Amino acid sequence: MFRFVFTYYILLLTLIAIIFCDEPCPTLDDFLIRSPYLAQFNAHLYEGIWYELAFYDYTQFSKACGCTHLNWTLMTTNTSIYSDDFITICPYEPIWLRKNYTVHMNGTANNKQYPFFIPETGFHMQFNNTVVYYRKNELNNDLYDRAIQYQCKVNQLGKRIFTGINFLSRTYFNSDIERKQVINEMIIAAINAGVEQKYLQELKIVQWKNC
């Protein structure tokens, strides 16, 4: 029975990939032309805790987990290498069954031509992780307080097989209304950055109640 369910799940993911991902990835120049300020990306201002507000990733189930956040840190011995701890709680409901899960990822932040390109390895895969939008908070030591990460992966034939989008903020907001407003603002920022609207229409909202 388990083998049947597992096979069905793999076939379903493959079908979704074919339907939604059969296209080339945007290039780094595509993002840079739309947002020239990305050339000024500073990895030191990206360090710290990030709370995920929304995401697109057909391999994740939004209702199963919640309270998702990242701890992004440059290595002290080599600041061109970073660690990224992906932390989430599953199951989200019921509360008494909640358990923390952490996935340790790492990557590089040393591309001088495209400093916003921070490729990452995690979940036994390498992702072309790219910061396509960020906002500086002048009231908080100039650290970035909002960011959008975009991942795209193609096969050997140049066909897209994965797309990932993460809306990140330095706070997860106590108010659902305020969180939704910020997400809407970030959707506009993502469109301006060149993120495809068809993926943004499928965003999943991260659950933060009672986190």
UniProtKB/TrEMBL annotation:
Keywords: Signal. GO terms for molecular function: lipid binding. InterPro entries: Calycin (IPR012674). The keyword Disulfide bond does not apply. Residues 1-21 form the signal peptide. This is Lipocalin/cytosolic fatty-acid binding domain-containing protein. It comes from Rotaria sordida.
